[in-house]
Write a structure and sequence with these properties.
Helix content of chain A: 40-55%
Oligomer: heterodimer
Mean pLDDT of chain B: 88
CATH architecture of the largest domain in chain B: Orthogonal Bundle
Distance between the termini of chain A: 81 Å
CATH superfamily of the largest domain in chain B: MetI-like
Shape of chain B: globular
CATH topology of the largest domain in chain B: MetI-like fold
Largest sheet of chain B: 2 strands, antiparallel
CATH architecture of the largest domain in chain A: 3-Layer(aba) Sandwich
Radius of gyration of chain A: 27 Å
Structural class of chain A: alpha/beta
Low-confidence stretches of chain B: 1-5
Number of domains of chain A: 2
Shape of chain A: globular
Mean pLDDT of chain A: 85
Number of domains of chain B: 2
CATH superfamily of the largest domain in chain A: Periplasmic binding protein-like II
CATH topology of the largest domain in chain A: D-Maltodextrin-Binding Protein, domain 2
């Protein structure tokens, strides 16, 4: 009796519900079909308009001082996407100088999320800012779609002399200038003097010394490492390739890319790190995670081969170890005195801006005027790209208590002078870096043969470049 | 000789249209007005993007060379893509292990609550449900900390009693760790659905069963569980759909273990990364649609299995 009663309930409900659903479905589906067709037709029409969508192209003739003065005294609103902390200070100075210009600073994320939002805005044709922060390695990818305004007609070409050649070559192509350099990241070696001293090691000056020191240190300290080479930070590793004189990437501005990861310079670096990684002499933890910060703070890593902006991170997270750190140049390959670069940003003007003159002036002013540019260096601890600031005594002679009173800026300024020039990038570094994490980075993290990872990385890059229509050299 | 009053309303077309005016018509308009906001948002945020996405999936846009029409080229590529297929298989493994465990737990909790034997009945119900109220992002961040080998409490606890540190975020355990987070989050939600279904059962059945001498377990097994089969089917379908759409947890844990969770760990994550890192929006659209088809097929199979079992019984 129980079973039958149950079945009756089930059967009854199903039938009712079935009928209800059937009726709704027919009506709903008809309405949906009509709207959907209309929608699809509209969208098919809209889709092709994506290529349009900018304002009038700015004059390619030189803009005169009168034009600039006129523009800077007209009421204008600019949007500035950047993640530099406290950049509002520089913007306030700019607004004080040009009261008619109102700048809105927006932080849309740091690194990858920032670029994702920027690309989405550029793809959709609306919502892109006037001025935007772009790191050096991503400039070619934005130049690829002609998204960056050529700043040469706006007076930006005149500042070329204030920058080292390797910096200027990153932002310019012939006479055209696509961005104003803001800060750079020449790489050096930050190390714990006390920990190295305990293990009886001098700070290594050559990579050979570094390898031996790493083994000695690991034997003396089974719980910690001399250094950490993460599997998720291609920027750091590429900086080391840069130092070795490798030029793995290239882009001619049009349709040809160069991918050269099988050169002797790259092999030198890979063959150096391979045994260290596989013998568990070097840490391979992912960086910029909570655990990694703690590792720096509690002595799990005795040194960090990092860029000139590295000290800021250390001071923030490893505050308890203040006074114990020192800065030195990177260990060198035989007979060389060279440095690589990791990161560094520029401010560029988006091509679709409605206010090119004002936007160009904003990018130019905050990065080249003495007061705001010096603030970047002394207050936000960005390492200046401008030679003028690099040589400023207020910057050079800053003594850092964190480094036991060492003039860290001076150390990095000397390093900056030795950065290898003419390092190129691919116009799709987002993908290149993501691909690194899947291939060579994974080999680091899992302590497998780095050469296999390198080959996998190179072939992924080549496949992607070909699929995207590039000619690969 | 007007006989309008005696003509049945349905047979007279004039009367039918007259019926359209007045109260019924106003009611109809009011009804449409109430659902209009929903349909507006539904059409603009779901249906139109769906069609646009489908439209995009038939093209290919290259960084150099613009957009070309490729027909089903993207779909063919997706079906041969190891990363995509690996992601789908991983989700099948996830489904086969996690969903029965989670629904089993939800069922046991719901039955336990329904038996009326528990003290602090409301408190227990609420505390099992609370994890569902925790936003997915926060849950993943929290578990990311708990799983941490150096500073997570499990790691510290293990070292304190001399055991090796559990590697929750290693490649062998990662899927299990994510299963744990998803189970923790959703067991309460499923339990509530099953509990509501149990509550709506007529209690005469239980009395009849107890008269026949059935104990609590027998009642649960033979009466309650078969009775809530529709609810169980509902939660199973939801879980199947949710599993294949897994995104939040891998995306957040990726920051902690970037070399374990690759770009294509789950198909949804793969579509997202394809669109925003690789700039391959068209291929991402094809992947998303293919994933949708996979979900449809699996859901249909599950429903079919359930229907067939019902027809047999």
């Amino acid at each position: 009796m129980t079973g039958r009663y149950q079945n009756d309930i089930q059967h009854h409900t199903d039938k009712e519900v079935g009928i209800e659903m059937h009726r709704l479905t027919t009506r709903q589906s008809r309405a949906l079909a009509v709207t959907a067709t209309a929608g699809a037709l509209i969208l098919a029409g809209c889709a092709d308009d994506q290529e349009e969508g900018g304002t009038d192209a700015p004059d390619s003739d030189q803009i005169t001082q009168e034009d600039i003065d006129a523009a800077m005294t007209t009421e204008t609103n600019l949007t500035f996407w950047t993640w530099v902390p406290d950049i509002q200070n520089q913007v306030d100075l700019f607004e004080a100088e040009y009261p008619a210009i109102d700048v809105e600073v927006v932080n849309v994320g740091q690194g990858a999320p920032h670029y994702q939002k920027l690309r989405t805005a550029l793809e959709s044709g609306t919502g892109a800012p006037d001025v935007v922060q772009i790191e050096f390695q991503h400039l070619p990818s934005f130049r690829l779609g002609d998204h960056l305004l050529d700043l040469a007609p706006y007076g930006v070409g005149d500042i070329a002399g204030d920058y080292a050649e390797w910096i200027w070559s990153q932002v310019s192509e012939g006479d055209a200038v696509y961005a104003v350099p803001q800060d750079t990241g020449p790489m050096g070696n930050l190390y714990r003097e006390d920990l190295l001293g305990e293990a009886g090691i001098d700070v290594p000056t050559t990579w050979e010394d570094f390898g031996e020191a790493a083994r000695t240190y690991r034997e003396a300290n089974p719980d910690s490492y001399l250094a950490n080479m993460p599997g998720n930070d291609p920027g750091q590793f590429v900086g080391l390739l840069w130092q070795a004189g490798a030029r793995p990437f290239g882009y001619d501005g049009a349709e040809t890319v160069t991918i050269a990861l099988d050169t002797t310079e790259v092999a030198t670096v890979i063959d150096f790190w391979n045994p260290l990684v596989q013998d568990d002499v070097i840490g391979v933890d992912p960086d910029f995670t909570d655990q990694w910060y703690q590792g720096l703070a509690n002595g799990r890593y005795a040194s960090w081969q990092t860029a000139a902006w590295g000290p800021v991170f250390l001071q923030g997270t490893a505050g308890d170890t203040s006074g114990l750190w020192r800065a030195a140049p990177l260990p060198q390959w035989e007979g060389a005195e060279a440095a690589g670069n990791w990161g560094g940003s520029t401010d560029a003007v988006v091509e679709t801006t409605a206010n090119p003159i004002a936007a160009a002036q904003l990018a130019l002013w905050i990065n080249t005027e003495q007061e705001p540019a010096l603030k970047f260096a002394t207050e936000q601890f960005l390492f200046p790209a401008s030679q003028k600031i690099l040589e400023d005594s207020a910057f050079l002679e800053q003594e850092a208590e964190f480094y036991g009173g060492q003039q860290v800026n001076k150390e990095f300024a000397d390093i900056s002078a030795s950065v290898v020039p003419d390092f190129g990038w691919l116009p799709f570094m987002d993908f290149a870096y993501s691909s690194f994490n899947e291939t060579l980075g994974k080999a680091f993290a899992e302590r497998t043969d780095l050469n296999d990872g390198l080959i996998a990385w190179e072939s992924e890059l080549e496949d992607y470049a070909t699929a995207q229509g590039f000619t690969v050299e | 000789m007007a006989t309008a009053a005696t003509v049945p309303p349905s047979a007279d077309p004039a009367a039918r249209s007259r019926r359209g005016t007045g109260l019924k018509r106003r009611q109809a308009i009011a009804a449409y007005c109430f659902v209009a906001p929903f349909f507006l948002v539904f059409l603009s945020m779901l249906v139109m993007p769906l069609f646009y996405s489908g439209f995009l999936s038939f093209f290919r846009e290259q960084l150099v060379g613009g957009t070309v029409f490729t027909g089903v080229g993207n779909y063919v590529r997706a079906l041969q893509d190891e990363v995509f297929l690996g992601g789908v298989l991983r989700m099948v493994r996830f489904l086969v292990i996690q969903v029965p465990i989670m629904l089993g737990l939800a069922l046991v909790f719901a039955l336990a609550l329904d038996s009326g034997r528990l003290r602090l009945h409301r408190f227990i119900r609420l505390s099992i449900f609370v994890p569902y109220a925790v936003p997915g992002v926060i849950a993943a961040l929290m578990w990311g900390y708990l799983y941490g080998p150096d500073f997570g409490p499990f790691g510290q606890g293990a070292r304190a009693i001399g055991l090796p540190t559990p590697q929750f975020l290693s490649s062998e355990w990662m899927l299990g760790s994510i299963m744990n987070i998803v189970t923790w989050s959703f067991v309460g939600y499923n339990m509530i659905i099953l509990y509501a279904a149990l509550r709506s059962m007529p209690t005469e059945l239980y009395e009849a069963a107890r008269v026949d001498g059935a104990g609590e377990f027998r009642v649960a097994w033979s009466i309650k569980i078969p009775a809530i089969k529709p609810a169980l089917l509902l939660t199973t379908i939801f879980s199947v759909i949710g599993t294949f759409q897994l995104f939040n947890e891998p995306n957040l844990l990726r920051i902690l273990a970037p070399n374990v969770i690759g770009v294509g760990y789950t198909p949804n994550l793969y579509a997202y990364n394809l669109a925003f890192i690789n700039q391959e929006i068209n291929y991402a659209a094809a992947i998303a649609f293919l994933l949708g088809f996979v979900i449809m097929i699996v859901s249909y199979v599950v429903q079919l299995g359930a229907l067939r079992r019902e027809r047999r019984s």
